[in-house]
C-alpha cells in the first residue's frame, strides 16, 4: 500500500505534496482577504491623502480596481510555484541566482515578521473590544500559540479552514452587512481626487502576498486552481471587507477612528449578536498570522535548506509574539507603501522573465544557480519609478527625498499616476529590453 504524504516536507529537499484543489485555494485566499486590518485601514482607503476624502462610489471603485490589479499579480506569482514545486523565495534563485536570492529573502523575512506582529496585535485589540477585562498581553500570547500550531501543520490548517471556518466567515460578513446597511448614516460628499493613491493602497494590501503566494501554490493540483483560488477568493473577500470597513468608519465616526484606529471595531461588537459573529472573525484572523509565520519559515529555508521547518516555525512564532507585545503599528500605511515599492517591481521582473522571455523552460532553482546581476537593474529602476509616481504619503523624510529627486530631473507627478502600476510598468519594460539585447547577443554569438 502506497503511503500518501499529506503534509509539507520537513526540509526543502522533500517533494511537495499536490493536495490542494481550487476549493482549498479559494477558501484559503478568501479567508486571507477578510482582515481586521482591512476594517481598521478603511479610513486610509476613504482618505489616503488626509484631507481629500473620496466619495462612496470612488472609494468602492478603488477597492474593486485595486483588488483586481493586486490579486492578478498575486495569482500570476503563484503559477511558477505550482509548476516548479518551489516556494517563493527559492523561485527567486531562478531570477537572481542562488546567492543573490538571499537579499529578497531577508527582506521578506523582515516584512513577514512585521506582518505577523501586526496580525497578533490586531487580534488582541479586537478581542479586548469583546472581552475588555482580559489583558491585551493574554490575547497576544494565546493568538501566538494558536498561530504557531497552525504553522507547524500548514496543509492540515488549510483543510481545516475550508471545512469549518469559511462558512462561519461568510455568515458573519452577511450578518454585519445587513446590520450596517440599516444603521450607517448616509455617506455624502467627497470626490475622485485621491482615487489613484486609494488604488495604490488597495494594491499594496493585495501585493503584500506576492512574496508568499508560491509557498502555498506549490501544493496546488494545477496552475488554474492556484490562480482561480487567489483571484476569485481574495478579490471578493477583500472588496467585501473594505466595504464593511467603510460603513463601520461611517458609524463610528471618522474622527473617532482617526484618533483610535480600534474604534472601528465598536460597531461590529455593538451590532445584534455582534460579539458572537465578530468573535468568529477575530478567531479567523489567526490564518493571517499563521500564513506569515509559515512563509517566514520557508523563506529561511532558502538560506538553510536542511533545517527542520517545525523548529523554525516554533522559533518564529515565539519571536513574532514577542514583537507583538511591544510593536507600534501607527505606521501601518507607510509599511504597506514600502512593501509595494519593493515587491511590485520584483514581481514584474519575474513575470516577464518567466512567462514572456521563456524563463519557465530554464528556471534554475538549485543551490548553485549562477548569479544574474542584470536582473537587479529592472528591479532597481522599477523601485525608483514607484516612488516617482506614487502619491501615497509614507515617511516624511523618505517622501521628501523622492520629491527632491523628482524636482532634480524635472519630473512632474500627475494626480492620475499610480505607484504600483508605474513601478511594475518600468520594471517590465526594462526586463523586456534586457531580454531583447541578451537574446540578440546570443544569436550573434551562435552565428
UniProtKB/TrEMBL annotation:
It is found in: Membrane. Belongs to the purine-cytosine permease (2.A.39) family. Keywords: Membrane, Transmembrane, Transmembrane helix. This is Purine-cytosine permease family protein. The chain crosses the membrane at residues 28-46, 52-79, 100-124, 136-155, 164-182, 194-214, 226-252, 264-283, 311-327, 333-357, 369-388, 420-440. It comes from the Bacteria. PANTHER family: CYTOSINE PERMEASE, CYTOSINE TRANSPORTER CODB. Signal peptide: none annotated. InterPro entries: CodB, Pur-cyt_permease. Pfam families: Transp_cyt_pur. Its main location: membrane. It is a multi-pass membrane protein.
Amino acid at each position: 500500500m502506497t503511503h500518501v504524504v499529506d503534509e509539507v516536507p520537513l526540509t526543502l529537499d522533500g517533494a511537495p505534496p499536490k493536495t490542494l484543489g481550487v476549493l482549498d485555494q479559494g477558501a484559503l485566499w478568501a479567508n486571507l482577504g477578510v482582515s481586521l486590518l482591512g476594517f481598521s485601514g478603511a479610513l486610509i482607503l476613504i482618505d489616503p491623502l488626509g484631507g481629500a476624502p473620496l466619495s462612496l462610489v470612488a472609494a468602492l471603485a478603488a477597492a474593486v480596481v485595486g483588488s483586481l490589479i493586486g490579486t492578478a499579480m498575486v495569482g500570476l506569482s503563484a503559477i511558477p510555484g505550482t509548476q516548479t514545486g518551489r516556494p517563493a523565495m527559492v523561485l527567486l534563485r531562478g531570477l537572481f541566482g542562488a546567492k543573490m536570492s538571499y537579499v529578497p529573502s531577508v527582506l521578506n523575512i523582515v516584512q513577514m515578521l512585521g506582518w505577523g506582529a501586526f496580525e497578533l496585535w490586531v487580534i488582541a485589540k479586537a478581542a479586548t473590544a469583546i472581552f475588555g477585562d482580559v489583558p491585551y498581553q493574554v490575547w497576544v500570547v494565546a493568538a501566538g500559540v494558536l498561530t504557531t500550531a497552525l504553522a507547524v501543520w500548514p496543509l492540515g490548517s488549510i483543510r481545516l479552514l475550508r471545512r469549518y471556518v469559511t462558512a462561519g466567515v461568510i455568515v458573519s460578513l452577511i450578518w454585519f452587512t445587513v446590520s450596517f446597511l440599516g444603521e450607517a448614516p448616509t455617506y455624502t460628499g467627497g470626490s475622485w481626487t485621491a482615487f489613484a493613491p486609494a488604488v495604490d493602497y488597495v494594491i499594496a494590501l493585495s501585493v503584500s502576498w506576492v512574496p508568499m503566494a508560491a509557498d502555498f501554490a506549490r501544493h496546488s493540483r494545477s496552475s488554474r486552481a492556484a490562480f482561480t483560488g487567489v483571484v476569485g477568493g481574495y478579490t471578493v473577500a477583500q472588496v467585501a471587507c473594505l466595504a464593511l470597513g467603510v460603513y463601520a468608519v461611517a458609524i463610528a465616526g471618522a474622527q473617532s477612528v482617526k484618533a483610535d484606529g480600534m474604534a472601528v471595531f465598536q460597531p461590529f461588537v455593538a451590532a445584534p449578536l455582534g460579539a458572537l459573529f465578530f468573535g468568529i472573525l477575530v478567531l479567523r484572523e489567526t490564518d493571517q498570522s499563521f500564513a506569515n509565520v509559515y512563509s517566514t519559515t520557508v523563506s529561511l529555508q532558502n538560506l538553510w535548506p536542511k533545517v527542520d521547518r517545525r523548529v523554525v516555525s516554533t522559533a518564529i512564532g515565539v519571536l513574532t509574539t514577542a514583537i507583538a507585545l511591544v510593536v507600534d503599528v501607527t505606521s501601518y500605511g507607510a509599511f504597506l507603501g514600502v512593501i509595494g515599492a519593493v515587491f511590485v517591481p520584483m514581481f514584474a521582473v519575474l513575470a516577464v522573465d518567466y512567462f514572456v522571455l521563456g524563463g519557465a523552460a530554464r528556471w534554475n532553482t538549485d543551490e548553485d544557480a549562477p548569479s544574474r546581476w542584470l536582473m537587479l537593474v529592472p528591479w532597481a529602476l522599477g523601485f525608483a519609478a514607484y516612488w516617482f509616481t506614487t502619491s501615497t504619503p509614507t515617511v516624511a523624510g523618505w517622501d521628501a527625498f523622492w520629491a527632491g529627486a523628482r524636482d532634480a530631473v524635472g519630473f512632474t507627478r500627475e494626480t492620475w499616476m499610480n505607484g504600483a502600476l508605474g513601478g511594475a510598468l518600468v520594471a517590465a519594460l526594462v526586463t523586456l529590453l534586457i531580454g531583447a539585447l541578451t537574446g540578440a547577443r546570443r544569436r550573434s554569438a551562435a552565428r
